[in-house]
C-alpha cells in the first residue's frame, strides 16, 4: 500500500472514531448510561449468531452499492441512482422468481440473480444513453430516474404483482427454487454473501489488472488525454454506468431473493443505494476498502436498531453518526490527497530509483 | 555568495515602490525568500526569472492578492497593508495581468468604469469616463475603441485597455506580467515605446519577463530572481545577455543550439484544403495546404490565437476538420504513426493523478506485448517503463509516483517518452517547452532534433519565435487562421517573420507550403 493510501485509510479510521465519540456524547446527554448504550450496541452487532448474521445480511447490499459507485466514479461518472437501480434489479429478480416456475434451483436462482443485474443495468443504460447521446448530466439523469422507479415499484407491489389476496401491498414470496440457501442456520444470512465477495474481488482485479480497468481509470483521471491516446472515452463512460448499475441490480436481487420474506415490497431498497455512496466515500473509492467500510456501516445500522429497541435512543442517531463521518471524511480529503509542492528539478542531483515495489495499484 | 547590486542613485526614500524582506512559503516551498527591490519614479525595472522563480508570487503580494509571511511593501515610503487588493490599488499600484481582467462582453468604457466603481450606489457617468479614457489614450499614444465589446478587440488593444484602466485609477507603479506573451513582435515594439513614454512621464514600471531581448530594449535595471530569491540587480546597459541568462539559470547556458541538417526524405505529411469553420467567433481556419518530408522540421510561427492551436488539434486528429484532408504516410509498412506533444500537458497530455507507469502506457496498453486477452502483463510493463524512464532521463522517486508530484520538465519528459518511443513518422510538437526551465528546454530540443535526424517529420508549433528559428528548416507564418508565408530557414529572420505575422491580417492570401 502506498503512503498516500495509508494516509487515506488513517483519515477514514480517525473519522469513524471521532464520529462514534461524538455519538457517545449525544447519548450521554440523553441521560442513558454509556456502558448500557455500548453494551446494547455490542449486543446488537455481536450479541448472538443471529445478530451477527443480521449485520452481515445488511453488509451485502451496502458493499455492492458501494462497489457500484466505485466503478462509475473511477471512470469519472456520478451514478447517484444506485437506489433506483436496486429497485429495478430487485423487481426484475422478483418477477423471475414469481413467474418462472418449475425450474431446479441451479437454474432458477442464477436466472433470478442475472435478472437483477440486467434490470439494474437496463435502468443504468437509460441514464447512460441520456448522458452520451443527449448531453444530460449523469448526476441528474441517474437521480431523477430513481424517483420514477420508486413510484413504479410501489405501483407494481400494490397492483399487478401483489399477492393473491390483494390486501398486503406486497407480492407473494418467490418460488423456493429462486431463493438463496441459508448459510448459517438460525440466522438471516444467506449464501449470496459468497457471491458478493467474489464480485468485489473481481471488480478490484478488473480495475488493477485489465486493459478495460486501465482505460476506465485513465478516462476518469483525464478524459481528454485518454481520448487523444486512443481510448474511446464515451464507450467507457457508458460501460461504467451500466456495470455500476448492474452491480446495484444484484444488490436489489439479494434484497428480494435473499431476504427473510423473499418477496417484493415497496421501498425494499431501504436507502442502501445512498448509504452505499457513504461506504465508498469512507473507502476512498477503493473496491477492497469497501469491505471494511461496509461492515462498519452495517454494524452501525444493526447496532442502532437494538439501541432503539432496548434503550429508546432514536435510530436517527445512527444517521447523524453517518453524517458526521461524511463531513469528516470529505472535510479532510485535502489532507489525504495533499499534493507535495516540493519539486525536483531536472538538474537536481538526486538519482531516481526505478525499482519494482511489488504490486502496482 | 555576493549579490551584485546596482542601486538607484537616489536614496530609498524617493523610491515609488520598495519591497523589503518579503517572504512567502507554500507548504515546504519557499516561493519568496527575503525579496528586496525598489523602483524609482521614471524608471523601468525588469524582473527576470524562470518559471517557478517566484515572480508570480511577488506580483500577487504586490497587488494585495496574497499576504506575505514576512516583510513589507512600501509605496512612496508608506507601508501597504498586507493582503488588501483595494488598498494596493488605492495606493497606486496598477497591475496588468498576463490573463486580462476584462469582462468580455463589456466595452472598454464599461470595463474601465467597473474598475473605478468603488463607491456603491454612485451613478456611473459613462460620458465622463469615456472622455477621460479617450484623453489618456490620446496623450499616451494608445489607441483604443471605447464603444466596442472587448471580446471583439484584438489582444494588443485589450492590453492597452488594461494599461489605461490602471492609469485612470491613478496608478503610480505599473506592473506588467509577461506582456509580450500575447503580442506580435511589431506590437511589442509599439508597447515598448509606450512604456518608455510612461516612464518619462514619471511612472515607475516593473516589467516581469523571462525574455532577455525585451529587457535590453526597454529596461533601465534588471532584478534577477532564482528559486524564490533575488540573486542580482544589475544595470541593463552594462550587462551582457549571456550574463543575465547565467544569473537567471545559475549556470552557463547555450543560448542557441546547433541545428542538424539532413537531406529531406520522402513526403510524410500531406495536408490539403484543411478547413475548420468558425474556430474563433466567425473566423475560419484555413484552407491550409502543407507538405512535410522526413528529416524536416516545419516551424509554425504566429501570435497566439491565430489558429495554431486548432491546426495542431486537426493534425493530431483531436478535432474533425470541416473540410480537407490530412494524410500521414508511413516510412515503413502500415499506417502512418503520429506522436503528439499536446499544447497543454496538464489538460491534454497527462493524467496527473495517475502513476508514471499509467501515463507511459496510454498508447500501447492494448498491444500483445503488454496485455494478453485483456489482462495486463505487469512484469513487462514495469520493465518497459523503467527502460523509458532511464532513456528519457525522467527524474522520479519511483514508477508508481503520481505524475503530479513531478516537476514540469519531468512531466514533459514523460510525454516525450510516450510519444517518441513509438518511433512516430510524424511528430506534432505544440508549445513543447512552455513553462519549462532551461535545462529541460535543452533536453526537449535535443529530442526533437534526434527525431528529425532519425528521418521523422516534425511540425513544431511555438509562440517562442527563437525556438521556431532555432529548430525549423522551414517556417510557416500564421495569421488570422491562415498560413501567410512559408520561409526557408536561411531567409527567415525575426524581423521578417514579425512583419508577416502582423501584415497577414490584411493580405490574407493563400500560400502553399
From TrEMBL, chain A:
Domain of life assignment: Bacteria
Transmembrane regions listed in the UniProt entry: 52-72, 84-101, 107-132, 139-157, 189-207, 235-257, 277-300, 312-336
Topology of this chain in the membrane: Multi-pass membrane protein
Q: Where does the protein principally reside? A: membrane
Q: Which GO terms describe its molecular function?
A: transmembrane transporter activity
Where is region (Disordered) located?
340-361
**Which key words tag this protein in UniProt?**
Cell membrane, Membrane, Transmembrane, Transmembrane helix
Q: In this record, what's one Pfam family?
A: BPD_transp_2
Please state where this protein is localized.
Answer: Cell membrane
Extract one GO cellular component term from the record: plasma membrane
User: Which PANTHER family does the record associate with it?
Assistant: ABC TRANSPORTER, PERMEASE PROTEIN, GUANOSINE ABC TRANSPORTER PERMEASE PROTEIN NUPP
Q: This protein is called what? A: Nucleoside ABC transporter membrane protein
From TrEMBL, chain B:
Q: Which UniProt keywords apply?
A: ATP-binding, Nucleotide-binding
Note the CDD domains from the entry: ABC_Carb_Monos_I, ABC_Carb_Monos_II
Report the domain of life of the source organism.
Bacteria
- Would you indicate the residue range of the signal peptide? none
Gene Ontology MF terms: ATP binding; ATP hydrolysis activity
> ABC transporter domain: from which residue to which, for each copy?
17-252, 269-505
Q: Which InterPro entries match?
A: AAA+_ATPase (IPR003593), ABC_carbohydrate_import_ATPase (IPR050107), ABC_transporter-like_ATP-bd (IPR003439), ABC_transporter-like_CS (IPR017871), P-loop_NTPase (IPR027417)
Q: What is this protein called?
A: Nucleoside ABC transporter ATP-binding protein
Source organism of this protein record: Pseudonocardia thermophila
